[in-house]
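ARCHIVE CARD
CATEGORY: sequence design from structure
SOURCE FIELD: tokenized fold
FIELD CONTENT:
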């Protein structure tokens, strides 16, 4: 059942041009291709995530992502979970476990002392949006790493080198750290007159 759902979603994404043409009818907009519509959709999602999480929760969400990526493969009870849920493929269990850990850690961090210590309050909105974009890219590489090869074949080949390889996952994990290091505002020097 879960495989059918993922396969159907991926087939809809791959056939987006036909879908968009059916919705718009025979409106001929020269130069507008479906890949630009997908790009605009993801830009909208990134902006939505950046604005909804806000400056104070963005770093907590990023930290929760790193913690979930670390803890999920080290979950010692995965075999018992697999026995308890027999009808579901392993990659769905891993994705579900990842999101469960991510949500649990996010709730804990949002109620901790770190909420006030880790903040982007002094950062510009552009930095917050860039960190949200990098965070979404990192999340995409994580989710694609769980997919079996038969589902990865349905992902557009142009995206594979940027999101579905170990090298891509490494760089999507490292870039937020570099962004945080270089995005910190320099303290203003007060001159006494």
């Amino acid at each position: 059942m879960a495989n059918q759902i993922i396969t159907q979603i991926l087939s809809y994404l791959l056939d987006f041009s036909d879908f968009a043409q059916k919705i718009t009818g025979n409106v001929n907009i020269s130069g507008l291709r479906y890949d630009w519509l997908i790009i605009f959709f993801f830009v909208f999602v990134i902006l939505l995530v950046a604005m909804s999480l806000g400056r104070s929760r963005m770093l907590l969400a990023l930290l929760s992502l790193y913690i979930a990526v670390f803890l999920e493969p080290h979950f010692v009870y995965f075999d018992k979970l697999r026995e308890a849920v027999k009808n579901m493929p392993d990659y769905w269990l891993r994705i579900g476990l990842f999101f469960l850990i991510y949500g649990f850690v996010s709730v804990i961090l949002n109620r901790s002392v770190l909420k006030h210590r880790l903040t982007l309050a002094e950062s510009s909105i552009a930095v917050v949006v860039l960190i949200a974009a990098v965070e979404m890219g990192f999340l995409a590489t994580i989710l694609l790493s769980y997919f079996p090869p038969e589902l990865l074949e349905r992902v557009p080949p142009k995206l594979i080198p940027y999101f579905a390889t170990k090298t891509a996952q490494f760089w999507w994990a490292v870039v937020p750290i570099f962004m945080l290091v270089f995005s910190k505002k320099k303290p203003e020097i007060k001159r006494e007159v």
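CARD ANNOTATION: The first helix runs from residue 2 to 14. Residues 17-183 form one domain.
SHELF: design records, drawer C
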